[in-house]
From TrEMBL:
<keyword id="KW-0808">Transferase</keyword>
<keyword id="KW-0949">S-adenosyl-L-methionine</keyword>
<feature type="domain" description="Methyltransferase type 12">
    <location>
        <begin position="185"/>
        <end position="287"/>
    </location>
</feature>
<dbReference type="GO" id="GO:0005737">
    <property type="term" value="C:cytoplasm"/>
</dbReference>
<dbReference type="GO" id="GO:0032259">
    <property type="term" value="P:methylation"/>
</dbReference>
<keyword id="KW-0963">Cytoplasm</keyword>
<dbReference type="InterPro" id="IPR026113">
    <property type="entry name" value="METTL2/6/8-like"/>
</dbReference>
<comment type="function">
    <text>S-adenosyl-L-methionine-dependent methyltransferase.</text>
</comment>
<dbReference type="Pfam" id="PF08242">
    <property type="entry name" value="Methyltransf_12"/>
</dbReference>
<dbReference type="GO" id="GO:0052735">
    <property type="term" value="F:tRNA (cytidine-3-)-methyltransferase activity"/>
</dbReference>
<dbReference type="GO" id="GO:0008033">
    <property type="term" value="P:tRNA processing"/>
</dbReference>
<dbReference type="InterPro" id="IPR029063">
    <property type="entry name" value="SAM-dependent_MTases_sf"/>
</dbReference>
<keyword id="KW-0489">Methyltransferase</keyword>
<dbReference type="InterPro" id="IPR013217">
    <property type="entry name" value="Methyltransf_12"/>
</dbReference>
<comment type="similarity">
    <text>Belongs to the methyltransferase superfamily. METL family.</text>
</comment>
<protein>
    <recommendedName>
        <fullName>tRNA N(3)-cytidine methyltransferase</fullName>
        <ecNumber>2.1.1.-</ecNumber>
    </recommendedName>
</protein>
<keyword id="KW-0819">tRNA processing</keyword>
């Protein structure tokens, strides 16, 4: 369920771009010199106008009968979408390796630590910002960190937890990817625009990638892709909101979970339970990565009256739905699920169509949340 129709893939806009926050528009006269500008400040007037447009397009709500239809037949609407567009709508997201270096093959040292159960060091790796995320992280909690290169022993409690992690090894029957030491799950994989770049870029035999989507049509397109390798990847149909349907891997088995423009596609009342279940799949020290729509994104401002389902939740013309988040809303979802913030930032980007001399203000939110080594309830 690749939940973005106009996500503005940075790779398509700028080729291989630098990490978020690297290109600033200091001279408005140069706005059409590049295809995109980072961290664009909004004027008070622009922010007020955006709020006015949202209030205006939210006054008339979709009738309850249609809302029930969009929920019950959500898989039909997504299947119809992929039957029409197949794999020609979205571009491969090679920008993910810049924004989320956890997915890049250069993270060999991190993978080695994970495979050796040195998860306390991995935990400190993120908390100390050695992955480079501290360059763009929001305000972090003040705490002492142990770097990867530091020979100082971590606290005794973390040593004990690290030793006990071996007892968390999967004791169930064989499952897809059970022999791998580094496991990634993408939820809402669409036709594989994230999964295939990961597999093509990373030949590490210890890596195994899972991918699921609400749409059986999308999953079938993934499986019939020439790049699909069942020995390295497992694609399956899954409803993120179905609490009665289990995942094909056990709890505490995943190193990374990816949510790219997917959480926004489900009804807000079901988001917390979905994140709670995903959190349980992560190993201690594992991380959840998200990129999704932010409040007042251009796509939200373009909705017309009669397309609003509930506050900041809309239906598109083809029956698929989308929510527009704030940072606080996402922080609440992740922390309630027992995860700790590593990154939660707003990507305000000005996209430019130089041919038509058009400017488009996009708002996305990017998050990284870590599963602690010790549960807060322990």
């Amino acid at each position: 369920m690749d939940g973005s129709f106009a996500e503005g893939d940075p790779a398509a806009l700028c080729g291989k771009r630098q990490q978020f926050g690297s290109r600033f528009l200091s001279d408005p006269a140069r706005v059409f010199h590049h295809n995109a500008w980072d961290n664009v400040e909004w004027s008070e007037e622009q922010a007020a106008e955006a709020e006015r447009k949202v209030q205006e397009n939210s006054t008339q709500r979709v009738c309850q009968e249609k809302q029930v239809d969009y929920e019950i037949n959500a898989n039909k609407y997504w299947n119809d979408f992929y039957k029409i567009h197949e794999n020609g709508f979205f571009k491969d997201r090679h920008w993910l390796f810049t924004e989320f270096p956890e997915l890049a093959p250069s993270q060999n040292h991190l993978k080695n630590l994970l495979s050796e159960n040195k998860r306390s060091e991995v935990y400190e790796y993120y908390r100390s910002g050695e992955d480079g995320s501290d360059l763009i992280m929001e305000e972090q909690h003040s705490c002492s960190s142990v770097s990867l290169g530091d020979k100082t022993q971590p606290p005794l409690m973390e040593e004990s937890v690290t030793q006990k992690l071996r007892h968390l090894e999967i004791c169930t029957n064989e499952f897809p990817g059970s022999s791998a030491t580094y496991r990634i799950l993408e939820v809402g994989c669409g036709v594989g625009n994230t999964v295939f770049p990961i597999l093509q870029t990373n030949n590490d035999p210890s890596l195994f990638v899972y991918c699921c989507d609400f749409s059986s049509t999308a999953v079938e397109l993934v499986k019939t892709n020439s790049a699909y390798d069942p020995s390295r990847c497992f694609a399956f149909v899954h409803d993120l909101c179905d609490e009665d349907k289990s995942y094909p891997m056990p709890e505490n088995s995943l190193d990374v979970i990816i949510l790219i423009f997917v959480l926004s596609a489900i009804i807000p009342d079901k988001m917390q339970n979905a994140i709670n279940r995903l959190s349980r799949l992560l190993k201690p020290g594992g991380i959840m990565l998200l990129r999704d729509y932010g409040r007042y994104d251009m796509a939200q401002l373009r909705f017309k009256k009669g397309q609003c389902l509930s506050e900041n939740f809309y239906v598109r013309g083809d029956g698929t739905r989308v929510y527009f988040f704030t940072q606080d809303e996402l922080d609440t979802l992740f922390t309630t699920a027992g995860l700790e913030k590593v990154q939660n930032l707003v990507d305000r980007r000005l996209q430019v169509n130089r041919g038509k001399q058009l400017t488009m203000y996009r708002v996305w939110i990017q998050c990284k949340y870590l599963k602690p080594l010790v549960s807060s309830t322990s």
